[in-house]
Amino acid sequence: MPKDQSERTAMHAYVRHLNFPSSVAVSPAGQVYIAETGLPFDGAAKGGRVLSVNDDGSVQELLNNLRQPVNGLVWHDNSLIISEGGYPGRISRLDIHSGNWTVLLDYLPGFGNYHTNMVAVGPDNKMYFGQGAMTNSGIIGTDSHDLAWLRETRHAPDIPGYDIELSDHVATVTDPEGQQISTSAFARFGQVHAGGTRLQGQRPCTASIMRCNLDGSDLELVAWGIRNAFGLLFLPDGRLIATEQGTDVRGVRPVWNCPDFLFEVKPGAWYGWPDFLGGLPINAPVYRNPQGEGQAFVLANHAELPAPEMPLLAFDVNACAVKMAQIPAGLRHAGDLIVTQFGDERPMTGPPGPRVGRNLIRVDTSDWSKHALPALASVPWHRPIDVAFSPDGAFMYVVDFGDFEFTATKDIRARAASGCVWKISVNNMELTS
After folding, report:
1. Which of 71, 176, 311, 416 is most buried, judging by how many CB atoms fall within 10 Å of its CB?
2. Dist. CA 156–CA 188, nearest whole Å
3. Are 116 and 127 spatial neighbours (Cβ–Cβ below 8 Å)?
4. How far is Cα of residue 348 from the mean position of the Cα atoms in its chain?
């Protein structure tokens, strides 16, 4: 079989032995770039890297020592835009031709549960990005001490994007030193805001979508109350969509049965967090614990905020929907989405149960329905986290984060050099006629 024909029927691990990669970007000429998070699990080197991939799957390092975790890598105008989640968060640009690296936006919120996420360049030529929440559901609790990627209770509190008024809800826990500690929402651990306290919206803020010019200037809030918008994508009609990772069964405001969501991002909208999830109040029957108890509101001015947005769809609980790509024109299901699902992080983020996610699904954008991809069922994924198509639409690249699981004691069991990038012909995905 001729080489070009054999490649077009291939499904193979294209780049191997990566340390917890998060992102892939493909230039218009077909050059593939990868970002490693820089998370130092299992002896992996600390600090994110950007790599260029050679034809044979070997790599060349372009940039290193980035603030971990590197959560995004996007091609734009002969450059790579890099999202660094570390503390503080940062967005930078690497010019591929000159090799010049420039910081565009720095001192973004952290350090907390989630981070600065990927950038998407909009039709208005601005950079849009998600900024994750500092907490699970608004109040710092001892669950932050249990999080294997955080291990710190006294971390930064959430920052509101809109003006809010706090309820009188206060959580009291026993801290790791055995002391009784009371904390309220949008406060540091051990700090209590009186009911009726009003906090002004700030820029930057957490649990938000923000945007700025391509040089990092004129930072603006687009929308607030989206807990952790990890994946962003502009549709051809200009609409921005985002995956949101749902609230966990942990901490002082645990939420049961909360799925991940896909939202259309609308300027000035409120996505409900920390009091509404997927358009439903946090005390809705579906979100209550097995004893039928729901969580109290932490905001007292819902009437002053926009009505909470409803999602386009809900993913499976604990599927951890992350990044996505649109199927190119000329293929079956053109315009639909391929969504990577990182998979559950139980028992860290919920009670023990069967594995969920760790796969790819197709989302029909005409009715926002979910569909399995049985042709990929045999691929031995660990944790898919990003996806991109080649410019000619012949191949799909899938980033597998690697072997990364949680033990019964809520520790991480990770294996360095287990990440890879798969190169899959669309023929193998049943996307050709």
Report:
1. 71
2. 6
3. no
4. 17
Distance CA(371)–CA(361), nearest Å, equals 6
Q: Give me the residues paired with residue 339 across strands.
A: 324, 361
pLDDT 10s digits, 203-237: 999 999 999 999 999 999 999 999 999 999 999 99
Contact 133, 207 (CB under 8 A): yes
CA 329 distance to own-chain centroid: 26
For the record, the structure tokens of 52 come out as: 């260029």
**How many Å apart are CA 382 and CA 396, to the nearest integer?**
17
For the beta sheet containing 240-244, the strands, ordered from the edge strand earlier in sequence to the opposite edge, are 229-234, 240-244, 261-265, 313-314
Q: How confident is the model at residue 431 (pLDDT cuts 50, 70, 90)?
A: confident
| 179 in Cβ contact with 162 (< 8 Å) | no
Judged against a pLDDT cut of 90, whether residue 274 lies above it is answered with yes
89-100 tens-digit pLDDT: 999 999 999 999
Instruction: Convert the pLDDT of each residue in 224-273 to its tens digit.
Output: 999 999 999 999 999 999 999 999 999 999 999 999 999 999 999 999 99
pLDDT grade, residue 10 (50/70/90)? confident
Average model confidence (pLDDT) for the chain? Answer: 94
**C-alpha to C-alpha distance for 404 and 301, rounded to whole angstroms:** 41
**What does each C-alpha distance from 188 to 156, 298, 355, 376 come to in angstroms?**
6, 15, 34, 45
CB–CB of 326/233 below 8 Å? yes
For 330, residues 6+ apart whose C-beta sits below 8 A from its C-beta are 393
* Phi-psi map region of 333: left, alpha, beta (phi>0 left; psi -120 to 50 alpha): left
Q: Is 410 exposed, middle or buried (0-12, 13-18, 19+ CB in 10 A)?
A: middle
Give the residue-averaged pLDDT of 355-364: 95
At 433 the pLDDT is 61
pLDDT at 372 over 70: yes
Backbone φ and ψ for 304, nearest 5 degrees, come out as: -85, -15
